[in-house]
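Quarterly update from the structural biology core.
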Amino acid sequence: MSTMTSRPRGNARTRVVARRSGLYALLMALAALFTSPFAWLLITSLKTESAMGAFPVQWLPHPVAWENYAEALDYIPFLGYARNSFVIALIQSTLMTLSSAYVGFGFARLRGRGKKLMFGVVMSTLMLPHVTMLIPTYLIFAEIGLVNTYWPWVMWGLAGSAFLIFMFRQFFVGLPLEMEEAAILDGCGYFRIFFRIFLPQAKPMLATSMILSFGWAWADFLSPLLLLSSDRTTLAVALATGYQTPQGSPLQNLIAAGSTMYVLPVIVLFLLLQRFYKAGSATSGLK
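Predicted structure, tokenized:
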């Protein structure tokens, strides 16, 4: 009898192990698929210039050209462009996070006529492609003299983001009403309630918002290309236009080396804030 009962249990364990092994194999295959572009970028950044056009394709660099990274830093003012990108991304991400949090708090906790309509209007802006707004935005900024300055990124940051407003609104809706009522009884206005009570509770959402908005500003190519001169532009524009021979041919290995260094700040920021990012993204749509 014990032999008969042990066999089904053994078969069940075998099926569980087989399912888990298959799942892990699938996840490893997907991970390899998603990381393969970055792996190819690293391989390309270590190839010599002569190996770039070699046939058949040289899959592994030989010899390994570590000097490509030093040359990528010197070929263009890499650190200067990186500083411009960092300033723009930090300004926009900080202001966008705070303004989106404040608007999300208002939609979540304040009461008033037309609030649902206004929230619907804000959410409808998510359907507007960013590209369609570039020319009107450029004309407006040119008319008021803000071209070739960083003020457009300040204004975009203060305007907030519809997607981030939605995430903060979802988070603040789920906080207990007793916290707000107790603060009002103590004589706090909604401005102090937001900064003293609600904002400290929103650390996961703040980290999530900082990662997303910093990445958006850091990776933006079209806006700096339209609004900034060549000496004040960002690293994204410089990478696309700076690594060329005198004849205009792109230097693919230097572009790959510069692009590898270009993505490092966003990766470092994500690694520093990923614990809060995962918590925020996991709870943003549940309330």
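The domain at 72-283 is CATH 1.10.3720.10 (MetI-like fold).
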